[in-house]
Amino acid sequence: MPKRAAVTRPQSDEYAPYYETYVSLIPGDDIVGALETQRVQMAQLLAARSEREGNFRYAPGKWSVKEVIGHICDAERIFAYRLLRIARGDETPLASFEQNDYIAPGAFGERTLADLAAEFAAVRAATLTLVESLTAEAWVRRGTASGKTVSARALAYIIAGHEVHHRRILDEKYFPAIPRA
Q1: Is 19:156 a contact under the CB 8 Å cutoff?
Q2: What pLDDT is recorded for position 180?
């Protein structure tokens, strides 16, 4: 296998300002290492949870734990697809997506938490395979998604930061609020 291309942090002009929330959550320049660490952390987090906890919502109208995990998977697939297209030099503008429109059709509540954990692991494995294959030139390519300029490397940081954002919400709002059985 060829040596992995070195990747540095994206500059602020490589992504829309609203993605700074995600990019800022990832320290350093080892995005591949961060993605791999998250794969392990998410597996550990979900393995420690019961089905009852998977169905928990910390407030009315909020997503369940299962829906949060399903959302993370859906968003990662979309961001990774964007990363692929841009890294390969496709200049076709890519449409935005409305995250809430994906929850009900995803039927995440009908699945087991273990199944969703396995899905996250599979999605993350595919993302890792993609990012590990990129050349230095591919990492800095830019394209358009949601009407804004974005680079391939920014999308990798967005994927990682999006996962951290939602894992923190799980840790801070969901799991502490789950009533003890």
Answers
A1: no
A2: 81
Residue 140 has, within 13 A of its CA and on its CB side, a CA count of 7
* pLDDT confidence band for 3 (50 / 70 / 90): low
Displacement of CA 146 from its chain's centroid (Å): 17
- Rounded to whole angstroms, the Cα distance separating 67 from 38 reads 18
Which CATH code of 3.40.50.300, 1.10.10.10, 1.10.3720.10, 1.20.120.450 fits the domain covering 12-177? 1.20.120.450
Which residues in the chain belong to E strands, given as ranges?
142-145, 148-151
* Closest CA relative to residue 36, chosen from 21, 47, 26: 26
pTM of structure = 0.96
What pLDDT does residue 1 have? Answer: 46
Strand partners, 161: none
- Every domain of the chain and the residues it spans: 12-177
- Residue 13's Cβ-count burial label (10 Å; 0-12, 13-18, 19+) is exposed
**Phi and psi of 144, rounded to 5°?**
-125, 130
User: What one-letter code names the amino acid at 13?
Assistant: D
Per residue in 12-44, pLDDT tens?
Answer: 999 999 999 999 999 999 999 999 999 999 999
Residues paired with residue 151 on neighbouring β-strands, in sequence order = 142
